[in-house]
Design brief:
119 residues, alpha+beta, 6-stranded antiparallel β-sheet
């Protein structure tokens, strides 16, 4: 899969059921250090050591899974499917970089996105 194929797939998939980019932007706007997305729980940012809800609606399992899976390349997806976890750095020009941990437990996918400060 080429970069533009990935970008097109990424852009299409972050909108339905929640917008990962908006959640990451909200986290940074609040000077948060981390975004956590978990099925059945509202998206939360860690701000000054406290969990801060970013929406009123808990994430559905499928939406959470889609937001996490869309970030993975084919090779990363194979590693994730095998190990049920993966860690990598993700970023865009607009929002910056994030250390990303995606895990699958009991068939549900969750993600933690830690803000990486850039000089």
């Amino acid at each position: 899969m080429g970069f533009f194929d990935w970008l097109s797939r990424f852009s299409a998939a972050v909108k339905p059921g929640g917008d990962l980019i908006d959640l990451l932007k909200q986290t940074k706007k609040l000077n948060g250090t981390e975004l956590r997305i978990t099925p059945g729980v509202v998206p939360q940012a860690i701000v000054k050591g406290r969990l801060v809800p970013l929406t009123d609606m808990p994430l559905e399992a499928e939406a959470c899974k889609n937001m996490c899976h869309i970030l993975l390349t084919d090779m990363q997806r194979a590693e994730f499917d095998k190990n049920k976890k993966i860690e990598f750095v993700f970023g865009t020009k607009d929002i910056g970089r994030f250390k990303t941990n995606i895990v699958s437990a009991e068939g549900k996918v969750s993600g933690i996105f830690t803000v990486l400060n850039m000089p």
